[in-house]
């Protein structure tokens, strides 16, 4: 069943959707017909954590009418919260990280400009679309929060001030691979393709971050982000 994020009141006897792009997707792209059911969800406080099933009653250009059928609790979210501090990498790879981080359950993503970052900025509106579509597809109850780009120095300070455990991923021969942590709230730092500079590793250590390894093989930044995130959330 198709799922859609909708910023509207969902506890209604008749739900009228007037978002033209969404109506176009339902009518012309997915070709959903009268009598078929879809699921809407929202991260508004009164709807958070629930999926709302509606039946399509009528659809025309620019408008669709739905009747409510079922309200179910969404229990797919991890009991842990992970904030991913991701160094900026090439656009297509960064967007892949956004998609997969959403799928594995990351709660918040902080784009970070580290010394060897290949990019210095991101297209926030485009990234928001990627997050929304990934949340719809994967069954998430929320869309991960996306912060604006910040420097590495500000990111380290932000993580330190959060008061939560911070893991700093780096290539290492040591057997200190990341494991599923018992912490309910953690921060994870992932470096760029060129790796961290020594001063960045020193800054992380000084901020009481735990330096962890993802094994003896050198992983791409986007691969490391997904593997480490999944392990911390579900391992």
Automatic annotation (TrEMBL):
<keyword id="KW-0949">S-adenosyl-L-methionine</keyword>
<dbReference type="GO" id="GO:0070042">
    <property type="term" value="F:rRNA (uridine-N3-)-methyltransferase activity"/>
</dbReference>
<dbReference type="InterPro" id="IPR046886">
    <property type="entry name" value="RsmE_MTase_dom"/>
</dbReference>
<dbReference type="GO" id="GO:0005737">
    <property type="term" value="C:cytoplasm"/>
</dbReference>
<dbReference type="Pfam" id="PF04452">
    <property type="entry name" value="Methyltrans_RNA"/>
</dbReference>
<feature type="domain" description="Ribosomal RNA small subunit methyltransferase E methyltransferase">
    <location>
        <begin position="77"/>
        <end position="229"/>
    </location>
</feature>
<comment type="function">
    <text>Specifically methylates the N3 position of the uracil ring of uridine 1498 (m3U1498) in 16S rRNA. Acts on the fully assembled 30S ribosomal subunit.</text>
</comment>
<dbReference type="InterPro" id="IPR029026">
    <property type="entry name" value="tRNA_m1G_MTases_N"/>
</dbReference>
<keyword id="KW-0808">Transferase</keyword>
<keyword id="KW-0698">rRNA processing</keyword>
<keyword id="KW-0963">Cytoplasm</keyword>
<keyword id="KW-0489">Methyltransferase</keyword>
<dbReference type="InterPro" id="IPR029028">
    <property type="entry name" value="Alpha/beta_knot_MTases"/>
</dbReference>
<comment type="similarity">
    <text>Belongs to the RNA methyltransferase RsmE family.</text>
</comment>
<dbReference type="InterPro" id="IPR006700">
    <property type="entry name" value="RsmE"/>
</dbReference>
<dbReference type="GO" id="GO:0070475">
    <property type="term" value="P:rRNA base methylation"/>
</dbReference>
<protein>
    <recommendedName>
        <fullName>Ribosomal RNA small subunit methyltransferase E</fullName>
        <ecNumber>2.1.1.193</ecNumber>
    </recommendedName>
</protein>
